[in-house]
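Researcher: I've got a protein sequence and the SMILES for S-adenosylmethionine. Could you write out the 3D structure of the bound complex as structure tokens? I'd like something to compare against our soaking experiments later this week.
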Amino acid sequence: MAEGRGRLSPAVLGERPGGRSPGVPYSPLYADLYHSEAGAWAQAEEVFIVGSGLPGRWRGRSRFVILETGFGLGNNFLATWAAWRNDPERCDRLVFISIEKHPLTRDDLARVHDTVASAGEGPAEPARALAARLIQAWPPLTPGLHTLDFEEPALPGNAASAGVSLLLGLGDVKDVLPQLVAAVDAFYLDGFSPDRNPDMWDAHWLSRLGRWAAPDATAATWSVARPLRDALAQAGFEVTRAPGFGSKRDRITASYRPRFTPPALAGGLWPEPERARRSAVVIGAGLAGCAAAWALSREGWRVTVLDQHTGPAQEASGNPGGLFHGIVHGEDGIHARAHRAAALHTAALVGPWMGDGRLTGHCQGLLRLDAQLTDDQALTLIERLGLPPDYLQWCPQERARRISGLPVSSGGWLFTRGGWLDPAHYTRCLLQEAQ
Ligand SMILES: C[S@@+](CC[C@H](N)C(=O)[O-])C[C@H]1O[C@@H](n2cnc3c(N)ncnc32)[C@H](O)[C@@H]1O
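Model: Sure. Here is the predicted complex with S-adenosylmethionine in place.
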């Protein structure tokens, strides 16, 4: 999946004017509440989870994919994750894709969930524990795709590869959605109210939702606006009304019943083979082969890796050290964005392995010297790209010297989550995880 473009501005949270709706997070930008006054978790449960036929529909599946428009405070995600954990017949992997233009900062996310849990919203302890895991994994707010994996191998009845993958697409829905390649089982449509947030209910992309719909997909939302119903119908959904939640009289549930099947997306997904047929052979135990084996095994595949050597990473991947970091480019094009997403995902993956001593390396920052740029040019570039300091900083020469302890000859970029690792250890970790 490619990423969305554009500079991000984080959400601003406030109180509804006039002291109405105390304690319910409010967006001054959209002049609307983040969720029903009757409760975020209750709304998530009734409108989105039950409204999507869950938990029943993920039973017997190895993977179930949800696409949400508007991650907001993450309540729908957390409630869905909790419902998945509580269901002994859960699918192996829940993939939750969510698109958000104004993500919360980590501090705001922590503040909101502390408030929610202490106000007794939702099953407080599980809610708090899951929110803590989300906050811990919360990425730097760079535009584009972020993959946050929450592995759950210890849940009763689960396959070793079980877990929840949250794919956060940070950017405007109109930019991020067209770049997604996914077969979505359930759409959660959760913008602010259509009159205040028309972009989130734009018929132009809603009427194309069929392009991302898996067979038997559903769409759920609290809104019953006529243009929304028309756009969903145009996309091939059969739209029905159900009793509304909180102050709403009705809500919508919709099932994908297209009169014709739209053309498959370029680079689209293979249909998922049945469990017994999911076996693969990977030839070559270098970095790419081991990473492919690891990724397949997380999707429940049995993988055999073949190599002429007795261990992994013995040839081109056999350097004593490998670096992982993003790149900075004035256009912030696909190359730069793909590197960024990959480097951040790598840091999240290898951090715990380095922490428990399984992997030799370091992921607390990588300094990349750049003699081409003056300090002013670099700072202007960072400002223009809107990249946050917990992802990237410019270090003038003196600071670069101090950080590295070396007599460096120029300033450079500090990728705060970049680092290095031992490729042979890393490939062994990947293969161990894949077993
Ligand atoms: C009602 S809130 C979502 C609540 C969320 N689902 C939850 O569970 O907490 C709507 C969200 O849509 C986001 N949003 C508004 N316009 C957007 C756009 N054009 N593209 C992507 N996200 C947008 C807002 O920033 C806000 O976080």
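Model: Residues 11, 34, 68, 70-76, 99-102, 172-173, 190-192, 197, 199-200 surround S-adenosylmethionine (CB under 6 Å). Residues 334-355 form the longest helix (22 residues).
Researcher: Great, I'll pass this along to the crystallography team.
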